[in-house]
Amino acid sequence: MLNLIDVFFVCIVVYLVLRWNFGSHWDFGDKIPGYNGMPIVGFWYQYFSVKFEDAYANFLEIAKPFDSVFKIWWGLNLILFIRKPEDIKILLNADESYDKPKKMYKTFFNRGLFVSSGEKNRLYRKTMSIILDSKAMQTYIPTINIKMKNFLKSFDEKLKENGDEMDISKHTLDFALIAILSSMFGCEDFNEDERLKFLQDVEELKKHESSISDFVEIIETGVEKNINKVESTDKKFYPPLEQIYEITKLINHFELKDEISTIVISGSQKTGKVIAATILMLAMNPNKQEKVIDELVTIFNGKSDQIMDERTLNRMKYLEMVVKETIRLLPPIPQISRQIRKDIELADLQIPAGVIVSFFPQIIHTDKKYWGDDADEFIPERFSDTNFSKIHPYAYIPFSNGERSCIGDRYAWNVIKTFLSQFLMRYRVTTKLKFAELKLYSLFTLNIKQGFMVNIEKR
Ligand code: HEM
């Protein structure tokens, strides 16, 4: 049995070990305003004392009193939250803050591009950008168009079965998944139930990791089978696979699996949510919806069922402004973080290595200092070239920015515009939901507790 003196000595030893490892963070943290929480566990107790779905709103609330920087202790990790665009610019571009905090990001991506650090990440980025460049895009767009036409055919049936009010995100996520599987990986292996289960598992984060991994394994097996065919024949195959084949010369089997997982999950979740959120915002703003339709009618000139190329998609300027305004108010990635690897000067502080620095895009996107008094309103016109040129480039960061910004944004834009232009030309959307009443919560991506509920009728 331990007596009191033993307990005292154990406490002293534990304290000295912690002091040795975290002392510089404790001393630094003492100078920063914010929340200490309880010793050792820090702010965790606060997190677990609110309902999971209220945690995001709760965080936005506790951030309100701080103008520039505040801290929380997350267990033994010190996290600083920043909110000035000029500080975000430094964070997203400095070599000292290139890495992401692995513990926060590791859920599905293991060693892939999303989580990897340093030189390895730079190599992955260069490698993966081959399948997301403009040449690759030309091969994807026709497939995405065909999938959209199939989607519309089956959606008419679903409307008849389910009535006209529905959570549209279920359908847009499935479409985004189909688009990425077929256009990039030439993969048609999954039926609707399997796709929906995968999307549900990803949404619920860690709970069913093995089923997520099995899904990716099937895609990867298909990719490797096709790569073998590429190797054994001179005949040209599905073009993206030839590019992936080039990539496999640089990375191994496990790395390829992690990259597939990164691309499939990033591509389907974020893109699908953005499409659903835009439909919801247009349902809340019928006059903006009609402006989108006016633009589309002019562009299509009576031929909306034609295969669209990137040039046609680029002409959809008002639709683009609507999507940009949607992701200003509802950024799909709710939090962006970096772990400082070498001491850095940021936000007028000398931040020591190991500290995590984080920000919430939604806080910056709705800060009246940068967006004006109407920052909470849905006004796509603020993204006209003239109006947007007055906004600080780091006050708008839905795709992040700097060296580790999103590498899939161009692909995402093509899927988003293909879907929305075809869908909106065919259906009118309305909703009972009001923006101010939406309850937002954060899982892998930003979510709405009430669902993306819209009423849909044929035009
Ligand atoms: C509208 C859709 C999308 C949005 C809003 C979005 C947003 C973002 C954001 C904010 C980041 C930075 C995250 C961070 O620094 O913590 C990111 C990174 C990334 N995105 Fe996207 N993304 C979208 C679509 C896609 C698509 C379609 C793909 C792939 C096909 C993709 C692949 C990636 C990858 C690989 C990274 C990690 C880059 C790195 O860490 O070096 N994203 N995305």
Characterise the protein shown here.
With 459 residues, the chain is of the alpha+beta class. The protein has one domain: Orthogonal Bundle (Cytochrome p450). 56% of the residues lie in helices and 10% in strands. The chain is built from 19 helices and twelve strands. The strands form four sheets. A five-stranded mixed sheet has the order 1-2-3-8-5. Strands 4-12-9 form a three-stranded antiparallel sheet. A hairpin with a 2-residue loop joins strand 6 (344-346) and strand 7. Helix 8 packs antiparallel against helix 12 (253-284), helix 12 (253-284) crosses helix 15 (317-329) and helix 13 (286-300) packs antiparallel against helix 15. The termini are far apart. It binds protoporphyrin IX containing FE. Residues 100, 113-114, 121, 125, 262-263, 266-267, 270-271, 274, 327, 332-333, 336, 398-400, 404, 406-408, 411-412 line the site of protoporphyrin IX containing FE.
Give the second-level CATH assignment, the architecture: Orthogonal Bundle
Count of DSSP helices? 19
Each distinct ligand: protoporphyrin IX containing FE
Shape type:
globular
Name of the CATH superfamily: Cytochrome P450
Radius of gyration, Cα only, in angstroms? 24 Å
Task: Report the sheet-strand fraction.
Answer: 5-15%
Numbering strands along the chain, what is their spatial order in the largest sheet?
Answer: 1-2-3-8-5
Overall mean confidence score, pLDDT? 85
Function: May be involved in the metabolism of insect hormones and in the breakdown of synthetic insecticides.
Family: Belongs to the cytochrome P450 family.
Membrane topology: Peripheral membrane protein
GO cellular component, one term: endoplasmic reticulum membrane
